[in-house]
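USER: If only I could read backbone structure tokens as easily as an amino acid sequence. It would mean a lot if you studied the pair and described how this chain folds. Here is the record:
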Amino acid sequence: MVVMKNKVNITYITGLVTTMVVFTGILFKVQHWPGAGYLLILGILLLVFVFLPAALISNYKSRGTGDYRILYIVTWISCFIVFTAMLFKVQHWPGAGYLLMIALPFPYLVFLPVFLIVTGRDKSPNIYNTVAVLFLLALISAFSALLSLGVSKERTLDSLTISSAYNRIEKVYAELPPAESGSQLIIKADQAIKLVDEYREIIFAHEGITEEQWVRNPEILMEPGNRKAQKARSFSGREGQLHGELQAALSDMIMMAENDPGLKILAPRLKAIFNMVHSRGEGYIFADPLFKSDVRPWVHAYLDGLEVNLKLIRTTL
């Protein structure tokens, strides 16, 4: 009796420690504090390989019958697959998508049938246990689905640092001596740069921020308050015109390079840099529907990169 009580106490202590480690890891992950990954890995390992086996073995022995042995084994396997898939997704490890594809249906296709068959043999079944299990499965599925669809804020904000890098490079180009402006391609590049600057000014005004705020902190566009304020504003109509004018200017640059024997090798590279494809009757058009999206940070990132590339092209001609 004393031995059983000690085992129960160890199970409770293990469960408490595991819970604290997992929730601390989640807190660190949400706050983007260092060490979050290690805490989550430790927490999942404790949960799957220490607490769950101890709890299942303890419960199995307390029943005094071997009827539920297969259920306990399947329960552990299901938990192992689901929590491993979640850990891989949260940590952005390779293979996370495939694991989630297995983890989402596994509890329903494997665990639930075994649970219903084993508990169906019980002469005094408890309907509340069945309902609780169904709710737990629904919760796990919903959480796994959100993980599979969602992109963490950390990765989203990391991607915005690309724009910060472009802005730093642009400052370097501003310190270089201006190139000769006799070439028609340089004139067209200057025109495109002016259109990019005007395009960005309109979008900044629409979003209620300044260029200095964007350069200093690109994450400002991801703040909920800013996103709501942005949706409440409307464009003046000039944005659509600028889109067409910018597309035409870049298209002209590509065709100028194609028609100039000395610059013919530059044409395919311009298409790749500008991310444009040939369209019959329209010259070249944007290959990516980025400008049709409401996700304005990516439009800014494209425009920042485009301006840097235009200035690079201008200095090398």
Q: What stands out?
A: The CA atoms of residues 27 and 301 lie 30 Å apart. The first strand starts at residue 276 and ends at 279. The chain has a mean pLDDT of 76.
